Amino acid sequence: MRGGLVRALGLVLLAAPVAPVAAQTVPQFVEETGASGLAHRFTGEWEYMVGGGVAAFDCNGDALPDLALSGGTAPAALFVNQSQPGGALAFAAVDSGVEMEAVTGTYPIDIDSDGITDLVLLRVGENVVMRGLGDCRFERANEDWGFDGGDAWSTAFAAIWEEGAALPTLAIGNYIDRREEAYPWGSCTDNWLHRPEGTAYAPPLPLTPSFCALSMLFTDWNGSGVKSLRVSNDREYYEGGAEQMWHLDPGQPPRLYTEAEGWKRLRIWGMGIASTDLDADGYPEFYLTSMADNKLQRLADPAPDALPDYTDIAWAKGVTAHRPFMGEDLRPSTGWHAQFADVNNDTRADLFVAKGNVWEMPDFAMADPNNLLLQGMDGVFVEAADKAGVASTQAARGGAVVDLNGDGALDLVVVNRNSPAQVWRNAGPVGTWIGVDLRQPGPNPTGIGAWVEVRTGEHLQRHEITSGGGHVSGIWGPQHFGLGQADTAEVRVIWPDGRISDWRDVPANGVVTVSPAD
Amino acid sequence: MDRRRVLALGAAAGIAALAPGRVMAAADPVPVLTNWTKLTLQLVRHTATYSPPVAARAFGYLGVIAYEAVAACDGAMTSLAGQVNGLPPLPAPGDGLHDAAAVLQSALSAGVAHFFSNTGPSGQRAMAAMTRTLNAKVTEGLPAEVAARSAALGQAIAAHVCHWADGDGGAVVENMGFPHSYTARDDAAAWVPTSLVRQQQAPLLPDWGNVRPFAMPAGNACALPPPPAYSEDPGSAFYAEAMEVYTATQAITPEQALIARFWSDDPMLSSTPPGHWIFVANDLITRRQMPLAASVDLMARLGIAMADAFIGCWHDKTTYNLLRPVTYINRVIDPAWKPLLTTPPFPEYPSGHSTVSAAAATVLTAALGEGYAYEDVTHEREGLDARRYDSFWQAAEEAGKSRLYGGIHFRSAIAQGLTQGRCIGAHAVALRTVA
């Protein structure tokens, strides 16, 4: 272990102590869309039946996440967060430079490592990387960074810092050839891998074969320290396709995992990837959204040198979410954005799933409520979206479960297709919590690829720091951990280069910034 | 039907000349048939309710629509009304010229739109694009009144057949064909769900055996004897069949694995087993430049035979409600065994792919002859190489065996399925199409 210096910089107590929380306490969410000023719609038809992302990140240094929302045929928009700590949600649209049309997805990432978060805008047409200038202003940086935005229907994103790189490697997933009106099937266009070459990007490598990706995620799936790229693909449009995982070995061209290596052929309407290490065994589980049954994958044999052979445990864990859990509409569901997050701070990751009909698909539910699945102490999830007040039946796409008012209770924003985006404030009750913010000098200042571990008593939680996944939506900010009734927690970080920090005690109900030793 | 009859129909060729002064053909009608068929295969794959029985039903009705559209313009052909169950006489062409391609285009565009009204946005766009493109082609150079008259006739024929179809008991499919609840029979031999998919905890389309058939008189017209009696005795016939599946899958060769995959024809990932055979027929129509009358005759009989095959097969699946190999083998032989293919979510006996393949082979052999060699390129776009067969029966028997290699059927289900398909196919072959 090197370093291990943990600095608790400006530990901020943002809320009064909260009451202890019991297992599967259902927090109450209050919809504040109208009052908050978050007035935005993701609109469009053919090219915008998928997409509809939101990026949640702090662009003005006030420790509250601001929101960049894609608009489809409407301009993308940036809303500055004006909420008061613990108070009602409040947003104001500002001119930021992101106001362009044809944006399907938005992901925040500090590409140039200057400490100011940048934005990647996925588009129908040319993708655009936007350099953060501070104070929620952005400028196009494709030319400065040598980024070839291409011309495709882009619908997935993931990023990772490869060893020694000055810039992150960006993976971009592309969808159908939009010119193929009569026979769109089998017309999936190549995904791209943008690898840096010095201080700029080399021409993108095609990730052939590509199968209409709707979500991508770099992940250390086997605990080896080497990241691989998972790609979730929409079987509606590929021919001969399946879910994919790519090797990304240092200095080597990407290559697909094969059946000979243990990768099993799985063909779903892949729309979103969420991951977390549910059982804290060092190997993340993956939730894959689809139509009808969704999948929760756990390694069949979780051990060092494990094969990438996954068992579907969605049913056993209560997260198939295959049809509306309320209302009269019993047709199968359509899942999009998914995110694990502890919304009641009981130390167990819960699961949010955005739901919504693709577009006039009468065999699938039209009134398709979002899911909020609360994990119990036995590891089984129970539906609570209706009791929590977030069971919207709008045609949801992207979303973010994130603390919008800094009170330690995770709030919710959802982007809907052809109807207004919605935002809910989590009014509790919730348990205690901490936020863990990573900072390291040089490239990759926010520690993408690290693991954060939080221990309360014998209970361990592990978060892999990723950029990507979900459905065209991303969050950048402190990692949120619920602590149940604990008033302190132990925290350590496994940095992307393998260094492991010491365990340090951290008081509950604040954000701690952690850096490695120099 | 025999081969000479099809050839005789072929002589009538693209333009039906037996009603002089009433019919013309500005454009070749055969591409209208083959293009709509290609699109239909895609729609089957991409429409969630289109499990194999539902797909076969659509192929049956669309085959009838195409046939009747051409027959309306061809005095040498006779209508299927009065031959297939419950089909009233078709609308007759009125006075004035009709264009065969325009009638067929109008009928198929309306028919496909009807049967795939529930497809998603991509399918809707594709249907609209196909309609626009083919409308433009068939009406190019056609007098406006002829185009309008032909379109009206095609629409009337499609509406007539669709109305007939709506009353067959198979028109409404909910929850992708799965009942919302199911109580398993308390019986060791009984089918139990084999899938981890929540939606598939009830058997697919348990009432499909009651759907009105086309050419066979009733769903039980080709009913099968029961499968071997359930037994866990290692000396029993049932155990022996299970052990055969177990042994075959444990020692599977690359060629056998390829056969299993080639014929897997999974719903929502392919055009399904009946779609596989429709693809073969459509490919042969195109490659061999088959005449129009023979082409629609073949498509109608093939669709009818396969639709009836699923009705008859499902009738017996429900009657015998037999468990799948994975259930038995895990219970009795090896709890860790897994089949190569995904086990379909419905009872085992008889094998649906065997029944439908035999029905298809019966029709294709009657139309094109014994020992008709051909190349099956159905899955080339999926990355599977073409396979060559010396006859349709060789292909059908391989399709049956593929289910054993895949670990999803016992031998009796395959053998009896082929027998049942041959019986059902004969009803379609017996239809009269020459006036």
Overview of this protein structure:
The complex is a heterodimer of chains A (518) and B (435). Chain A has 518 residues and is mainly beta. Chain B is mostly helical and 435 residues long. Chain B has two domains: 3-165, Vanadium-containing Chloroperoxidase, domain 2, CATH 1.10.606.20; 179-429, Vanadium-containing Chloroperoxidase, domain 2 (Orthogonal Bundle). Helix content of chain B is 53%, strand content 2%. Chain B is elongated, with a radius of gyration of 22 Å. The two termini of chain B are 12 Å apart. Chain A binds chain B through residues 45-46, 49, 181-186, 235-237, 239-240, 267, 291-293, 312, 314-315, 320, 322-323, 330-332, 358-364, and chain B through 39, 42, 45-49, 117-118, 120-122, 124-126, 129-130, 133, 174-176, 180, 196-199, 268-269, 381-384.
Estimate percent helicity of chain A: under 10%
Low-confidence stretches of chain B: 1-21
Q: What oligomerization state is this entry in?
A: heterodimer
Q: Work out the strand percent of chain A.
A: 35-45%
The outline of chain A comes out as globular
Q: Describe the sheet with the most strands of chain A.
A: 9 strands, antiparallel
Sheet having the most strands of chain B: 2 strands, parallel
Rg of chain B over CA atoms, rounded to whole Å, is 22 Å
The DSSP helix count of chain A reads 3
Write a concise keyword list for the protein shown above:
heterodimer; A: 518 residues; mainly beta; 3 helices; 37% strand; B: 435 residues; mainly alpha; Vanadium-containing Chloroperoxidase, domain 2; two-stranded parallel sheet; two-stranded antiparallel ribbon; 53% helix; 2% strand; elongated; disordered N terminus
Topology:
The complex is a heterodimer of chains A (518) and B (435).
Chain A: E1 29-31, H1 33-36, E2 54-57, E3 66-69, E4 77-81, E5 91-94, E6 103-109, E7 118-125, E8 128-134, E9 137-140, E10 152-160, E11 169-174, E12 191-194, E13 196-197, E14 200-201, E15 205-207, E16 213-219, E17 228-233, E18 244-247, E19 255-256, E20 272-276, E21 285-289, E22 295-299, E23 310-312, H2 314-317, E24 335-341, E25 350-355, E26 371-375, E27 381-383, H3 385-388, E28 396-402, E29 411-416, E30 422-426, E31 432-438, E32 451-456, E33 459-464, E34 467-468, E35 474-475, E36 479-484, E37 488-494, E38 504-507, E39 510-514
Parallel strand pairs in A: 2-35, 31-39
Antiparallel strand pairs in A: 1-30, 2-3, 3-4, 4-5, 6-7, 7-8, 7-10, 8-9, 10-11, 10-34, 11-12, 12-15, 13-14, 16-17, 17-18, 18-19, 20-21, 21-22, 22-23, 24-25, 25-26, 26-27, 28-29, 29-30, 31-36, 32-33, 32-37, 37-38
Chain B: H1 3-12, E1 23-24, H2 30-46, H3 52-71, E2 98-99, H4 100-115, H5 121-139, H6 144-166, H7 237-250, H8 254-262, H9 272-287, H10 292-320, H11 325-333, H12 352-368, E3 374-376, E4 387-389, H13 392-405, H14 411-429
